[in-house]
Amino acid sequence: MLKKIQDCVIIGSGPAGYSAAIYASRADLHPILFVGFQPGGQLTTTTSIDNYLGFPAGISGIDFMENCKKQAERFNTLIIDQSVTNVFLSNQKGGIHRIFFEKEKECLKSRGVIIATGSSPKFLGIDREKELIGLGVSFCATCDGFFHKGKEVAVIGGGDTALEEANYLSKICKKVYLIVRKNYLRASKILQSHISKRNNVNVLFCSNITKIIGNDFLEGIKIFNHENKTITTLLISGLFIAIGHIPNTEIFKNKLDLDDRGYVIVKKGSTMTNKPGVFAAGDVQDPNYRQAITSAGTGCMAALDLERYLYHEKME
Ligand code: FAD
Question: Which of 33, 43, 263 to mutate for ligand 1's pocket (most ligand atoms within 8 Å of CB)?
């Protein structure tokens, strides 16, 4: 039986959402969690997670997120298999927020909201890209670089993220091709200077990927140079797509302070947004680290921040 006014509604079912749910339910906040368009979040698209603490043999992304769900259910989190379609966020301290779902027919009222809607990596939009995620195609060098130790890989993109990925990979891989669409790099000068010092990074300007080669796993790519109109085949074991992420904040536009890229702005060292009782955790507020463990960490912080907020509200 649902209360008339909830204490904690969590939007999102990635590591941030489930971590917040576990902490909030153990603090008797009876959280309700909305699963959204991607049950389990981004990790469900990866075959193996090898960098999350506590899994010495690694674990598949689907198994990991299934475990997170079971753990949240064990403490009686109510999980709703729907997307939030709209929110009304109160400006008042102690105010009641409204969370709409199922095409605005229904609405939950809650004193506290934890936004854990994550982000989505941008795709190139070419054949085999999605099928080979975790089988050579990756969106995260820190996560998957290790599998390509001593091998040749390519990074796509010319911004800060792409250069950071290329820099990281250059320390463990034999050779890194940095494939850049334009004839210049958008990344900061300092990152460009780091890359220019790595003699195993080969920057290919004016180039687009036209084909991903490989059936069961990535074997190579074809590159078209639109300046000299040549096609080159690169035999690589890893393709790191670093052309950006889009935070899933469409429903929060004009309702919450977002930065110019759309990430939720939180107060430094906390998960507090500019609306009282509304907290944000995970990739949706983090353009920088974007890891499962940092998302789970900030999910925990959001639940603790909300618990303290509600406690102070009661005391006042
Ligand atoms: P997400 O995992 O992005 O989850 C967001 C959730 O919000 C989803 O459940 C979605 O359905 C939900 N949602 C969105 N909008 C709504 C809405 N309107 N209503 C309700 N719900 C909504 N990190 C690692 O640490 N190790 C790895 O090995 C690793 N591998 C990766 C491999 C791939 C292919 C990718 C793409 C990422 C990988 N990452 C890895 C990064 C990691 O997946 C993310 O950092 C992490 O999942 C972010 O967690 P999150 O909870 O913030 O958001």
Answer: 43
**Residue 27 belongs to domain spanning:** 9-120+245-315
Q: Based on the fold, state whether residues 14 and 93 are members of the same structural domain.
A: yes
Q: Hey, what's the torsion of the CAs at 92, 95, 100, 104, to 10 degrees? A: -70
Q: Is there a single domain that holds both residue 251 and residue 230? A: no
Q: Are 28 and 132 in contact (CB under 8 A)?
A: no
Q: pLDDT digits over 52-62, tens only?
A: 999 999 999 99
Residue of 7, 144, 283, 286 with catalytic role: 144
Torsions phi, psi for 175 (to 5 deg): -145, 140
CA–centroid distance, 280 to ligand 1, in Å, is: 14
The question of whether 140 is a catalytic residue gets the answer yes
Torsion of Cα atoms, 107 then 108 then 112 then 115, to 10° = -60
- Ligand 1 centroid to residue 86 C-alpha, Å: 20
Percent with pLDDT over 70 in the chain = 99
pLDDT digits (tens, 9 = 90+) for 194-250: 999 999 999 999 999 999 999 999 999 999 999 999 999 999 999 999 998 999 999
Mark whether 217 and 250 lie in a shared domain: no
- pTM as predicted: 0.88
Q: How many domains does the structure of the chain reveal?
A: 2
Q: Find, among 46, 257, 16, 31, the residue nearest to 117 by Cα.
A: 16
pLDDT for residue 286: 96
**Do 110 and 175 belong together in one domain?**
no
**Same domain, yes or no, for 19 and 86?**
yes
**Is 93 a domain residue?**
yes
Question: Has residue 1 been placed in a domain?
Answer: no
